[in-house]
Amino acid sequence: MDQFELIIGYLIAWGMTKLRRVGSRLDDEVDGVIEANLDRLHEAVTGRLGSDPAVTDLLDEVADSGVASELTRRRAELAVEAAYAKDSDFAARLETIVRDINPEGRKGGTTSATGPTATAVGGDVRLHAEGGSVAAFSMGEVNVGQAPTGPPLPGR
Asked: Mind giving me the DSSP string for the chain?
């Protein structure tokens, strides 16, 4: 994940905290610190790119549904990347804010998933299978070492 994907993920997280606030108050000091840094990121990006349709579309989609389409995310990444390349003050500000949000420099960022079987993971996931077993983060019905149940499929 490059730094611009990370920045857009954090912008989406900013929008999600605003949605969450509608239903409940932040009650944890850590949430307050994270939210303050996300606010700083939002202010930096919208201060520099507030009228850019890619950024406004991103924030509107998140405000409406809690997610942003892949196309909108990519458009916003490109807009931020272009501003970053042209404006060294903006670039330095973003680097500082991202470092404050993620002081250890962990790879990854905000991950979101929607749907009845969706799963979201932030951080590293390691899976291991050996000896004929199967490992997966999410898996439907699996048959290991035995014939599948149910009627035979054509061509079997």
From this structure: --HHHHHHHHHHHHHHHHHHHHH-----HHHHHHHHHHHHHHHHHHHHHTT-HHHHHHHHHHHHHS---HHHHHHHHHHHHHHHHH-HHHHHHHHHHHHHHSTT--S-------STT-----S-------TT----SS-----SSSPPPSSPPTT-
